[in-house]
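Purpose: get a first structural picture of the assembly so the mutagenesis plan has something to point at.
Setup: four entries, given in the order below. No constraints added.
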Amino acid sequence: MSLEAAPLTRFARRLAEQSLLGQPELDALLALSGPVIHAVGNRDFIKAGEPTDHAAFVVAGLVGSFGQNRNGHRQITALHLSGDMANLHSVVVPQSSEALQALSVSTIVCVPHATLRDLADTYPKVAAAFWRESAVRHATSTRWMVNLGRRNALARLSHLVCEVACREHGSEGKDGLRFPFLATQTHLADMLGLTPVHVNRTLKALRDDGVIELDNRVVTICDWGRLAHHGEFDSTYLHLSGGGNGQDQIRH
Amino acid sequence: MSLEAAPLTRFARRLAEQSLLGQPELDALLALSGPVIHAVGNRDFIKAGEPTDHAAFVVAGLVGSFGQNRNGHRQITALHLSGDMANLHSVVVPQSSEALQALSVSTIVCVPHATLRDLADTYPKVAAAFWRESAVRHATSTRWMVNLGRRNALARLSHLVCEVACREHGSEGKDGLRFPFLATQTHLADMLGLTPVHVNRTLKALRDDGVIELDNRVVTICDWGRLAHHGEFDSTYLHLSGGGNGQDQIRH
DNA sequence: CGTTCTTTTGACGAGAGTCAAGACTGGTGG
DNA sequence: CCACCAGTCTTGACTCTCGTCAAAAGAACG
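Result (structure tokens, whole complex):
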């Protein structure tokens, strides 16, 4: 219970900031709960193509959405950090087209669709907030597409590190920022559409260049400016509230 | 007015089929309208990063969402056909992160956000339908990511042709299906994360293989089975109702 | 303390990019 | 009616980023 309080607060606050929710709506969001599961790596806790009756809220850990090739080569299409509802969209499309898998040991709260639907029905503003949250996620997906289609390995990796830094930190990155990023290099490869070997080489280039440091899956950003430049990174698409430009409120 | 009737009907029917809307909701959807513009190629009719106050409904033609590189290399992240609301998500995130551009001369109805918001506020089921439609689009995006990250040129192109065939035809593809696909090879390259030259070579391979024919931007599918096999295509993610498996209704 | 999963590196190969030039198309204007 | 022009499409030759294969060294875990 107390375990998931902080991440849930982050989730509710993000929704509220973006959609101007009132106190009743906020309280209702904070009351969300459900069965807790501990997901481990290399095993889908939600399978592709099967209907689901709950959404997966990430309390702790790191979760990815996995698409797949006929050869079995996997493509991670989204990353879900602590405080994210991994598959909020499953409320309206219960037949998920993608699998959900933990990249590191993760704590997940399975929030029943029924609960979320009731919430959306009771508070139209919450319904709008859910839709909006989904749309912001979609914006992230489109950045990933640009990354995959139109950037080389160095830029892709840099962009990804920038994104995770910002989402983890809650605002713009800066020199000296240090955070755990529990994905393996194989996971990174699956996010970036590369091979693990090439990720390793690219990571080395970034390290040798003095842009980042890596120690046991803890990233330290030595030179945010150069990293963001390499990744052609601009954080506005994340719609962060923290250290952003502050002009992100929805306009009615 | 009569010009946009058929595509709008298609849009409304798709929303209704997926979300079980009643007659009042349907009527309200069919009453949607707004200023009409005629968009031409090579010029964004909605620019990236600028706030919008309307959604773009495609009556006729072909529209793409464009992301961009620092070098100016563009990545098309989504395709909008006749009967699609190109940026429905802009209702909840008015600051679009991407540009909208016509790939061929297109007729667009600019539906004011205010109208759509009123509709969603009046009919909760419509709000849900809008959200659902956005989610289905997102599912398409994730397929594109798998395409970009984990498939070679031949598979990417085949998959794209399959998708467009299905969306255009309203159901599963089949041999002999013929439809106009008004994108240039440069556009195809921008969708697939390739160069125009390589698209040309790949297209030739597909033609030489007898899988498709191409005549003045009209595609004929000679061998749907082989095309779908090349593209590793499975249409369920599109949530078509027409010739699909029929088990796509939302489960409450 | 061995087994399995990662990370790291090197050598080589292949798919896709780059550059360049010519053919074809549709539209414009003399 | 024809010449011109800009935008496509097509093809070939060469290059380069990234994939493949392989092997060894570290880490994690029971």
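Helices of chain A lie at 5-19, 23-30, 113-122, 124-150, 153-169, 185-192, 196-208, 224-231.
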